[in-house]
Amino acid sequence: MVTIKDIAQKTGVTATTVSRVINNRGYISDATREKVWKAIEEMHYRPNEVARQLARQHTDTIGIIVPHISHPYFAKLISNLEYAATRHHYKILLCNSREEPEKEAEYLEMCIANKVSGIVLCSKYLQAEKFRFLDIPIINLERMDERKDIITIQSDNYEGGRLAAQHLIDKGCRSLLHFGGVAGKNMPADRRADGFRDVCLQKGVSNVILQSDQKDFESLQYQDHIRKSLEKNPAVDGIFASSDLIALQVIQVCSQMKIEIPAQMKLIGFDDVGISSMATPAITTIHQPIREMSELSIEYIDKKLRGETVPLNVYMPVRLIERDST
Amino acid sequence: MVTIKDIAQKTGVTATTVSRVINNRGYISDATREKVWKAIEEMHYRPNEVARQLARQHTDTIGIIVPHISHPYFAKLISNLEYAATRHHYKILLCNSREEPEKEAEYLEMCIANKVSGIVLCSKYLQAEKFRFLDIPIINLERMDERKDIITIQSDNYEGGRLAAQHLIDKGCRSLLHFGGVAGKNMPADRRADGFRDVCLQKGVSNVILQSDQKDFESLQYQDHIRKSLEKNPAVDGIFASSDLIALQVIQVCSQMKIEIPAQMKLIGFDDVGISSMATPAITTIHQPIREMSELSIEYIDKKLRGETVPLNVYMPVRLIERDST
Fold it and tell me: Which residue in chain B is spatially nearest to A83 when comparing CA positions?
């Protein structure tokens, strides 16, 4: 690796002069300036960003800790976070916790040791006390914490559940089923079930709320869970799935059970990721503003670093997108 | 941020002693050792990984440059690369080039300035001469280059095309269509069309090979392209799509055109990502060994850094996975 010293040696000036030319500081004659730049070009010198980061005490890198990379929701989220980060001149350090508490803790330590500028947390198990003595801005994205002083950005999950139940009832369904999140985790997404239940109670519509288990979430394979649930609840004529990925598998299981969607069964997903519009039938879903939530996450980290005050709790609006499955 | 000096001050020993305790070097009395560790705990000291990286001249970070993050193929690839990197104690710096040449060049500069340990390139436009003077190991993953001295890992795309055509013909198809990659890019994936064409010619089966345009690839929306192609080629009874994502949309367009899969139309995808098994009908596909290709990419970077000799060109085997769409 070529250093400033090598450039100095080659051009016969001091390292300080080379540094001045690069940083455009102090008086340098045109001849020297030209000579130094020519050597920089010829010797393929590249400034050492790591050294600069050391001087600056942070690295313009934002750590993103997710429980899954290939899940369509997180893939879309990562894509949008990367886009927003680039616009704000940050790089992305991507960490997949796989929902393993030790792995999450390890990643967090790694982010801190590497002096990231901020962290976007989408993974559940991280112990809040780990952050207590840190100066790094942290964003909880669709994630709750016992600590109340961490910026939290979430979509209006309760309203999403309400919209889904209301739409299924409007379409004539009288026995609803909700495939909810992972049992025992207390995530913001669990509020979808609350909104769903409240509308059903209000309208006197029978409803079943099922949670999935950690194993299904890890493997992204919900078919067995869906099949057993439908066999156990044969009267169900409307399903609200807590992700488009689950909804895609509901279509498959219904097809195998000769249940026609939307004629015999209406179906709504959640997230509005690419597959919802590409499925057959195209999936009615609750749109989560992933782009805007990603943009805010990066913006808030950036503002916090500049000492500005940012909101502590943000709820983003959701909306129903009607397609062919209802 | 707490430094070694702060620990030294608090414990009344020198900074060198603190450093020795942390790095377990030289003789230190048990009393001093205990005192220093206690202060480290109490003051929440964290070693500065950036400073260590500066000393080491690289950062244990691997840059990944992809043209898409949320495309299921790249999402699965990133997920597997991250997993392999973690096993080898590397971190992932994720860059989405969006197939913009300037953005790719910018990301590459950024990776270099940040002293990454290696780069996995999955994006097309990067100019080879940019790397010419670099010591950093680079892996071309499913990507070709004019430069012949860069490690290239690809799946046996030609064989994949052959397997697809052979399977469709075995299933009774007599007029085949291939939805290929983006026109004018000369990617390894284009070899799928060659294998497909060769089998069709050999068996005397009529075949049409269509390329998609950059816009469709960027938006991941192929429906219009598929619809127009099927209207223009009404005799087609077998389709080989160059990704499962395209195959998913073929199912939708066929459903809208009242063409039954597999009764009237047989369909094969490529990649074997999650959606292929979750679609209705589940999609027959060519399995690409994404996990193994990711593992090799990281392993080769690691070996190159340790001065070991690694293969220059690797072709990974593919295999047919038969599901309901044929």
Answer: B96
pLDDT single digits (tens) B178-236:
999 887 777 888 899 999 999 999 999 999 999 988 888 888 899 999 999 999 999 99
Contact A91 B110 (CB under 8 A): yes
Residue B215 lies in a domain: yes
**In terms of CA atoms, which chain B residue is nearest residue A76?**
B70
Q: Distance between terminal CA atoms of chain B? A: 61
Structure tokens at B13: 């020993």
- B126 with B152, same domain: the answer is yes
Q: Determine the Cα–Cα distance for residues B66 and B94; give it in Å rounded to an integer.
A: 8
A54 to A41, A49, A62, B8: CA distances (angstroms) = 25, 9, 16, 21
- CA nearest to B172, candidates B203, B128, B146, B202: B203
In a domain, B306, yes or no: yes
Q: Which of A1-10, A24-33, A140-149, B127-136 has the lowest mean pLDDT?
A: B127-136
Residues B98 and B199 reside in one and the same domain: no
Assess whether A83 and A120 both reside in one domain: yes
What was the pLDDT predicted at A30?
83
Q: How many domains does chain B have?
A: 3
Alpha helices in A90-243 (DSSP H): 101-113, 157-170, 191-203, 214-219, 223-232
The pLDDT confidence band at residue B7, using thresholds 50, 70 and 90, is confident
Q: How many CB pairs under 8 A join A and B?
A: 137
pLDDT higher than 90, residue B124:
no
A323 within some domain = no
* Whether B242 and B93 share a structural domain: no
Q: Is B280 on the interface with A (CB under 8 A)?
A: yes
Report the predicted TM-score, pTM, of the whole model to 2 decimal places. Answer: 0.83
Q: By the 8 A CB rule, do B156 and B317 touch?
A: yes
- Residues of the domain holding B190: 157-288
Residue B322 lies in a domain: no
Report the CATH number at residue A170.
3.40.50.2300
Q: Which of residues 163-202 of A touch B (CB under 8 A)?
A: none
Q: Within 10 A of A168 (CB to CB), how many other CB atoms are there?
A: 29
Whether A26 and A133 share a structural domain: no
User: CATH number, domain at A15?
Assistant: 1.10.260.40
Residues B251 and B187 occupy one common structural domain = yes
Q: Among residues 66-85 of chain A, which lie with CB inside 8 Å of chain B?
A: 68-70, 72, 75-76, 78-79, 82-83
The answer to whether A291 faces chain B, any CB pair under 8 Å, is no
What chain A residue is nearest to B60 in terms of C-alpha separation? A114
Domain match, A18 and A41 both:
yes
Would you give the DSSP letter of residue B259?
-
**Domain shared by B271 and B173, yes or no:** yes
The residue written with tokens 């249940």 in the block is: A259
Cα gap A291→A77, rounded to integer Å: 7
Distance between CA atoms of A275 and B138, rounded to whole angstroms? 33
The first and second tokens of residue B323, run together, are: 């599901």
Residue-wise pLDDT tens digits, A106-163 = 787 778 777 789 999 987 766 555 665 567 888 999 987 766 778 899 999 999 999 9
